[in-house]
Design brief:
Distance between the termini: 24 Å
Strand order of the largest sheet: 2-1-3-4-5
Number of strands: 14
Shape: elongated
Number of helices: 20
Oligomer: single chain
Helix content: 40-55%
Radius of gyration: 30 Å
Largest sheet: 5 strands, parallel
Length: about 450
């Protein structure tokens, strides 16, 4: 278990033999290890560190030869932290208790004395199983969520989803900043659907899609006879959204004259229709979005600074698709399934060269561009496969060897070891401390990378 990401994952070792406890800490130093020597201290460590994996001896004080204390601890762990994976260590010929432990809910068992390498593999599998279950639980929670339409595995986007969930109950005005096609309207609708205003209307208006001469009447409405062609009283988008949420898309394209009128509405929370004299109170939550740099527009005199601070009480910056690690191919697979189903045909497979091309493309139109690209390819594909040519994209790097985790880890570890050894001037104790490994582990790394001789270690 030499993955650098594992260092953040906590392993609790419950063992009353202090010598074995120390040996296990050394053997599993790729994890963040915490130890306990009895049931009481194990529960304290469990509450404090919330470890994903626990290894525990069934024979614990005050009667190490009796397994009752161990089974009591096992039951408590599974009650307090049911997702934690418990690996039980038993005596060489104690298969009966090992099977009983697994029956109670333990992840696996190992007989003492154990081979550290084999136990290491079991611990690694337990961590992976825990991670998988956490991911499945997260996806299940999103399934019925208003944000379920936003497919992502990117940590940054998942954090934004959690932020939207937190903001839903607040009344603050939210500004969503990001390139076209990044999902700003999906987030705005999700914000509305999770709020107390969900029963009322979500009204969207694209400030860039409506001519300046019509935008004012679209927003504020007008009275009969206000201008030529105004044959009846018409409510504007702001008034229509009363009690609900108004989504102002491409707010950066709002003309300066209308910016002043919108600012007045945000201050007074009332409007006047064009040609009218009555102040009409409106209770609406404003969510706005733009792909423009509003601060640069303020500097250029194209956007009012006072309006910006009214609109940007909470600012959320949405990353472009090219910045979301792995999302392009993840979304591509999902879109293939969706459009194949919509067109009543068998879902074609994305070839390696298609996936490489998707990863290499910059996607200036973001998710919207990818969606349209996949939709066209699914409809037009002749066979059971979609190639880079079908997508209309240049071929990317098809060498899947670059994703070999062992190779990636080795290269990262070699670079880190070289840098730290150089920085500490060959001081092994200090280098091991910085790298977060034991000295024997560092010597092993130096030997594996052929660095002993050149560093004089």
């Amino acid at each position: 278990m030499n993955s650098t990401s594992d260092k953040q994952r906590t392993l609790l070792i419950v063992e009353d033999d202090l010598a074995l406890q120390k040996q296990m800490r050394w053997a599993f130093d790729a994890c963040e290890t915490v130890v306990a020597s009895d049931r009481e201290s194990a529960i304290v460590q469990l509450r404090k560190h919330e470890p994903a994996v626990v290894t525990m001896d069934l024979g614990l004080p005050p009667a190490p030869d009796d397994v009752s204390e161990g089974f009591k601890l096992l039951r408590e762990i599974l009650t307090l932290a049911p997702d934690t994976k418990v690996i039980v260590l038993t005596g060489q010929h104690d298969r009966e208790n090992a099977v009983k432990a697994v029956g109670l809910g333990a992840y696996d068992f190992f007989a003492k004395p154990f081979e550290p390498e084999l136990l290491n593999l079991t611990i690694e599998r337990a961590f992976r199983m825990h991670d998988l279950q956490m991911e499945n639980a997260r996806l299940a929670a999103l399934e019925g969520s208003p944000l379920s339409g936003l497919l992502t595995r990117d940590p940054g986007m998942l954090k934004i989803c959690r932020t939207i969930e937190k903001l839903a109950s607040a009344s603050a005005t939210v500004a969503l900043l990001g390139e076209s096609g990044t999902g700003k309207e999906i987030l705005a609708r999700g914000l509305h659907m999770m709020s107390s205003r969900a029963r009322e209307r979500f009204v969207a208006i694209n400030c860039a899609a409506i001519p300046d001469t019509l935008l004012e009447s679209e927003l504020f409405g007008y009275e009969k006879g206000a201008f030529t062609g105004a044959v009846r009283q018409t409510l504007g988008k702001i008034e229509t959204a009363n009690g609900g949420t108004l989504f102002l898309d491409e707010i950066g394209d709002l003309p300066l004259a209308l910016q002043a009128k919108l600012l007045r509405f945000l201050q007074e929370r009332s409007i006047e229709r064009i040609g009218g004299r009555e102040e009409i109170p409106v209770d609406v939550r404003i969510v706005c979005a733009t792909h423009r740099d509003l601060k640069a527009q303020i500097q250029a005199g194209a956007f009012r600074e006072d309006l910006y601070y009214r609109l940007a009480e909470i600012v959320i910056e949405i990353p472009a698709l090219r910045q979301r690690e792995g999302d392009a191919t993840y979304l591509a697979h999902a879109f293939v399934q969706r459009f194949a189903k919509e067109n009543s045909r068998r879902a074609p497979m994305l070839t390696d060269d298609a996936l490489a091309a998707i990863e290499a493309h910059r996607w200036p139109g973001n998710v919207r561009e990818l969606e349209n690209c996949i939709k066209r390819a699914v409809i037009m594909a002749d066979g059971d496969c979609i190639t880079a040519e079908d997508l209309g994209l240049a071929a990317g790097d098809e060498d899947l060897a670059i994703f070999n985790l062992r190779q990636v880890r080795d290269e990262a570890e070699r670079a880190a070891v070289l840098k730290v050894i150089a920085r500490t001037n060959g001081n092994i104790a200090r280098a091991a401390e910085i790298l977060g490994v034991s000295r024997p582990s560092l010597y092993d790394l130096l030997g594996r990378f052929g660095l002993k001789k050149e560093n004089g270690s």
